[in-house]
From TrEMBL:
NCBIfam families per record: DgcN
Domain (D-glutamate N-acetyltransferase-like C-terminal) ranges: 131-327
SUPFAM superfamilies in the cross-refs: P-loop containing nucleoside triphosphate hydrolases
Name under which the protein is recorded: DUF1611 domain-containing protein
Pfam families tied to this protein: DUF1611, DUF1611_N
Domain D-glutamate N-acetyltransferase-like N-terminal: 42-125
Length: 331
């Protein structure tokens, strides 16, 4: 997927800010590419962007209407449909992070075809992928992995990419989930790829490159999570990482939405590195990104020091302390 900017962010009439978390992530990382927001009466989310109609957005140069809100069931409410059709008529493409495919709506799909516009269902990859081959290819790759799902792998990957670019390094963020794709403008939502082809899709996402170029791969799931380990192992083998960053939320005792306990951090690191050596025997873990959002400043500092002392690796909170020390470890 290659999604054209600038974006006009569509929120509809969602009832709280959490329902707009996809849009919030896009605006955080691509503020300059987000020119306005479309909100219906009763909308309780706000991205801090100028309020616009679809016509206003088109006149301001928006190229893609982004449906950055979610609702129960991930469907497109019928009363949102008019805004999508108006955007297509105005010459915009439409991108959606909903579970429901825009292309399955005959009215929307028909209008897009008539107007020669593209529909991007970012949760659903387009086309076919090969199986992974595990063959060595030039370029460098860093993959974020986790002790659990939803621990900050996307944020950490984006922060590392930004830090690399500020240093003048060649670096690209490679998105593997719907929010990351909308932020990057391209990518593959690997959790919707048939399992036999996850590693191949990942290889396609980070192909051979210049020897000094870094692909920073957004991780998904966790090798220890009984629900999502399959997508994690496919990413590990397909990305052929030179470096891993372990992402961790220190206040959790059990994995998200299941009863399995969080394994010891050292075990998580060792098993992820061992899995990675199948396609890159030289892979190493270079640091730990700790999500300390549930802790106050003093407790966060104590937590980072304890983890660093125990692991013998740099431990940072990407939001509170930045990721410079992780990038230092790659030098």
């Amino acid at each position: 997927m290659e999604i054209a900017a600038p974006y006009l962010m569509f929120l509809g009439d969602v009832h709280d800010q959490l329902a707009a978390k996809t849009a919030t992530g896009v605006v955080h990382w691509r503020r300059a590419d987000c020119i306005g927001q479309v909100r219906f009466d009763g909308c309780q989310a706000n991205l801090g962007l100028p309020d616009m109609t679809v016509a206003d957005g088109a006149a301001s140069g928006a190229r893609t209407l982004v449906i950055g809100a979610v609702n129960p069931g991930g469907v497109l409410p019928q009363h949102w449909e008019s805004a999508v059709l108006e955007a297509l008529d105005a010459g915009m493409d439409v991108a959606s992070g909903l579970h429901m495919r825009l292309t399955d709506n005959p009215v929307i799909a028909g209008r897009a075809a008539e107007r020669g516009r593209q529909l991007f269902d970012v949760r659903h990859p387009r086309g076919a992928f090969p199986t992974g081959k595990g063959e060595k290819r030039p370029g460098k790759r860093l993959l974020t992995v986790g002790t659990d799902c939803s621990v900050g792998k996307m944020y950490t990957s984006l922060a590392i990419t930004e830090e690399m670019r500020q240093r003048g390094w060649k670096a690209d963020f490679r998105a593997t989930g719907q929010t990351g794709i909308l932020i990057a403008g391209s990518g593959v939502s690997v959790d919707a790829v048939v399992s036999d082809f996850i590693s191949g899709a990942t290889e396609t996402l980070c192909p051979a490159n210049d020897p000094d170029h870094w692909d920073v791969m957004e991780g998904q799931g966790s090798l220890f999570h009984p629900s999502f380990a399959g997508v994690t192992i496919g990413l590990i083998h397909g990305s052929q990482p030179d470096a891993l960053v372990m992402c961790h939320e220190p206040t959790r005792t059990r994995m998200r939405n299941v009863q399995h306990p969080i394994p010891p951090l050292a075990k998580c690191i060792d098993w992820h590195v061992e899995a990675a050596t199948l396609t890159n025997p030289d892979c190493r873990c270079i640091g730990i990104a700790v999500n300390t959002s549930a802790l106050d400043d003093a407790a966060s500092a104590d937590c980072l020091k304890r983890i660093e002392d125990e692991a013998g690796l740099p431990a940072v909170d990407p939001v509170r302390t930045g990721v410079a020390r992780l990038v230092d470890a790659l030098s």
